[in-house]
Description:
This is PadR family transcriptional regulator. With about 200 residues, this protein is mainly alpha-helical. About 60% of the residues lie in helices and about 10% in strands.
Amino acid sequence: MSLKHALLGILHAQPMNGYRLARFFAGAQSWVWSAPQSQVYGVLRTLSDEGLIVGEEQAGAAGPRTTVYSLTATGQHELREWIATPHPAPPLRDPFALQALLFDLVDPDEAVPAVRAYLADQERLVTEWTEHRDALLRMDTPLLRARLETRDAAEHERIARLKANVFDGQLEVARARAAWARRTLELLAERAPARPST
């Protein structure tokens, strides 16, 4: 997976300027990919250099001119090819799992704040992803509405359900992680038996 293909996917739905794209990715907690502004602009330059997108100067909403990017035919081909190609899972890097693996090295009370923070984060994700999934099912997100404008009305419900299904998967993962965090708190609450004095 890459920011390159995430950008192509968004631009397939709706042409945007770099600022709007950067804002989209900066606030992408409710999406499946996030990126800092500097990366977004760098990848836009690369996509333009590769002929996958084209920029058109337009008057900006606030006055100054802006470049609005859209996919080229080559960009559409690249996106479709990438979507249809199996990709290996990225290497596993889970900071909290690594932390939890080492909880036996600290007093249980020292580990509890990290577990509670992780649990709160997973519960927040459950809330955000539920809201986003529900908005997709209502066909009530700006990007989905833009995408549906170019699709046959008979496909709209299926497209919305396909997109919502992604967030159903994210919800299952977040709920499982929250349950795991609760079990971890229970294990931390169990005190090791006192060592016999000699």
